[in-house]
Design brief:
The complex is a heterodimer of chains A (194) and B (83). Chain A has 194 residues and is α/β, with parallel strands linked by helices. Chain A has a five-stranded parallel β-sheet, with helices on both faces. Classes of the chains: A alpha/beta (194), B alpha+beta (83).
Chain lengths: 194, 83
């Protein structure tokens, strides 16, 4: 009788041990699944018209495929978020100079190539209209309707001397730091830098 | 589906995106697919060459069934069935 009992407890212990292993594996799998969301993170640093366009076209395509899109605007790209109709008071001299020298809004952006003192962007805009490519304005509108989130780098805002009251009206616009981008990019299955 | 079969298919809705370039047709398709019933067939007209490969990818991701493409004179007809 005795050996049989010990045999049975052995088996029970083995089953318990296996169950424990399955449990740990399951928690690991769920944490891995949560790690990569169907999400696209783009850090947009460039303020060139063509590069902002590239970022927006990729974002719209992703959003149309129900991928969650999170854009992080920093440095030169902030010019694309300026509202030409809005003005901010109380800036110091350098901030004012930056404000004058940097493009006032997405329609004033330069091309990274063939800018030709503003002729390039005019020609591209003409071609875009002719060929039915959405304008940057239309792209931002579509993006807002598809729930594309925009985060603006707080540090760049201070650096360029931009104020929140001169930025465009956009439903999902918020201000944050680099750690926000890093933690959200970590969850994303696609990360881009433009 | 073969082109002959596609020509005979009953289309519930036609999206004419011939006036727009990438990603316009995709955005129009997304908007319209919300207005049709499950199992309905939608055709997307596009003059944009990229649509031929973009829409099948979109269908695969969204779970819709891509039925095929017919080339017309200067544009494409892409057929899909809503999931």
């Amino acid at each position: 009788m005795l050996p049989e009992i010990s045999n049975q407890t052995d088996q029970e212990n083995q089953i318990i041990h296996l169950q424990e292993q399955i449990d740990t594996l399951q928690t690991k799998i769920t944490s891995l699944e949560n790690l990569k969301k169907d999400q696209l993170s783009i850090a947009i640093v460039s303020g060139d018209m063509d590069k902002i366009m590239a970022a927006m076209v990729i974002s719209l395509a992703a959003a149309a495929m129900d991928t969650h899109v999170k854009l992080f605007f920093s440095f030169w790209s902030l010019s694309a978020l300026r509202d030409k109709k809005k003005k901010a008071d109380g800036k110091d001299f350098i901030s004012k100079m930056f404000g004058i020298m940097l493009p006032r809004g997405r329609n004033k952006l330069k091309l990274s190539n063939m800018n030709m003192a503003g002729m390039g962007p005019l020609m591209i805009k003409y071609l875009m209209k002719k060929q039915g490519v959405l304008s940057l304005g239309q792209m931002f509108k579509e993006a807002s309707e598809l729930g594309v989130e925009i985060t603006v780098c707080e540090m760049s805002m201070n650096l360029m001397g931009f104020k929140k009251e001169e930025m465009i009206d956009y439903p999902n616009l918020r201000y944050a730091g680099a750690a926000t981008f890093v933690s959200e990019a970590n969850e994303s299955s696609i990360q881009l830098f433009i | 589906m073969t082109p002959e079969e596609l020509k005979k298919v009953q289309v519930a809705k036609t999206v004419d995106a011939r006036g727009t370039a990438c990603p316009g047709p995709l955005l129009e398709a997304k908007k319209t697919v919300g207005t049709i019933k499950s199992g309905d067939i939608m055709e997307v007209l596009s003059a944009d060459e990229g649509t031929k490969s973009d829409l099948p990818k979109w269908c695969a991701k969204q779970g819709h069934e891509y039925l095929g493409t017919i080339e017309e004179n200067g544009y494409f007809k892409v057929f899909m069935k809503k999931k």
